[in-house]
Amino acid sequence: MKKIVVIPGDGIGKEVMEAAMLILEKLDLPFEYSYYEAGDEALEKYGKALPDETLEACKKSDAVLFGAAGETAADVIVRLRRELETFANVRPAKAIEGIECLYPGLDIVVVRENTECLYLGFEFEFGDVTEAVRVITRKASERIARYAFELAKREGRKKVTALHKANVMKRTCGLFRDVCREVAKEYGDIEFNDYYIDAACMYLVMDPFRFDVIVTTNMFGDIVSDLAAGLVGGLGLAPSANVGEKSAIFEPVHGAAFDIAGKGIANPTAMILTACMMLRHFGYVEEAKKVEAAVEKAIKGGKKTPDLGGYLKTLEFANEVARLLD
Ligand code: NAI
Ligand code: MG
């Protein structure tokens, strides 16, 4: 039995989680799901966005399936990633057939360092002067660079590109770039290059096919993965996995989307594909492929949520995917 902690969270997190669980429950795998609270509502109720009970359960779990948090995201998901030492945030941006998007056929993966950089929350205030501390270490840079190359090897990908701003942040980004270049030498059969993050954003928009695996620091990775999601149809489709040595957290790239929350129109595809990443993580590759194929078939058949130009509600789409699984 794998122990899975399920945290629906806030806003559409709850809605897309209900949809994804409908699919997971149908697969009848040796998973034991237990539900826990975290997020804005938990803060309101218990005075803590990440209640101790939730954190303890996550630490004891085999995996965490997370929906989204709202304004407390930093105290919940950013903290969870760090507490569980899930150092690699893997965010594929793969165009699904049947979806109108900027770049049909695109298939790239953003590998984001998950434990340091500006997201450590080392922020200080001296009256009207505020400052933040950016931490980049050799150890974390090496670990994430190696993870990116190993992922490329495992998935038969040809190229790894490191993104940084070493011309301005000479020490922090300089170290990250140098370590990536060093690790690249160990992987002779995988092409490597690096770009400044600003230029890379333009290349991503104008010519994304020059990328395959992207490896970058925490905040750049956060930004670039939303950008990459936009190239292939938007946040409604973008899954992600946070992987460490012992723990794993699976969550869609999107947040609580308060602008559409409560209407039942969120696209659950990102959350369902996130669940598929969890299935693969535990070796249920065939099951993951089945679900992914059902999602694709539903979309190809014109069954879409409003973000993709359709009219289906969250649960209607999930039910269609469930029906196609039979
Ligand atoms: P967001 O990712 O929630 O939404 C951005 C835009 O994409 C919105 O227009 C939203 O309607 C749309 N969108 C996102 N997911 C969608 C889906 N599944 N189907 C259809 N449309 C979708 O980011 P935003 O609006 O900046 O933040 C909203 C709240 O979420 C904030 O409180 C923020 O702090 C939090 N947040 C939490 C994250 C997390 O828990 N991992 C990540 C990002 C934001
Ligand atoms: Mg983000």
Which runs of at least 5 residues are low in confidence (pLDDT < 50)? none
Number of strands: 12
Distance between the termini: 24 Å
What share of residues are in beta strands?
Answer: 15-25%
Structural class: alpha/beta
Integer-rounded radius of gyration: 19 Å
How many separate helices? 11
> What coarse outline follows from CA principal-axis ratios?
globular
Bound molecules: 1,4-dihydronicotinamide adenine dinucleotide, magnesium ion
Order of helices and strands: EHEHHEHEEEEHEHEHEHEEHHH
Number of domains: 2
Average pLDDT works out at 97
Q: Could you give the order of strands across the largest sheet? A: 2-1-3-12-11-4-5-10-8-9
CATH structural class of the largest domain = Alpha Beta
What does the largest sheet look like?
A: 10 strands, mixed
* Helix content bin: 40-55%
Structure in a nutshell:
This protein is α/β, with parallel strands linked by helices.
Characterization of this structure:
By secondary structure, the protein is of the alpha/beta class. It folds into two domains: 1-92 and 237-326, Isopropylmalate Dehydrogenase (3-Layer(aba) Sandwich), CATH 3.40.718; 102-232, Isopropylmalate Dehydrogenase, CATH 3.40.718. 42% of the residues lie in helices and 19% in strands. The chain has eleven helices and twelve strands. The chain has a ten-stranded mixed beta sheet, with helices on both faces. The chain has a two-stranded antiparallel ribbon with strand order 6-7. Strand 11 (241-243) and strand 12 form a beta hairpin. Helix 10 crosses helix 11. The chain is globular and about 55 Å long. The protein starts with a strand and ends with a helix. 48% of the residues are buried. The mean pLDDT is 97. Residues 12, 16, 68-71, 73, 77, 235-236, 251, 254-260, 266-267, 270, 307 line the site of 1,4-dihydronicotinamide adenine dinucleotide. 1,4-dihydronicotinamide adenine dinucleotide is lined by residues 12, 16, 68-71, 73, 77, 235-236, 251, 254-260, 266-267, 270, 307.
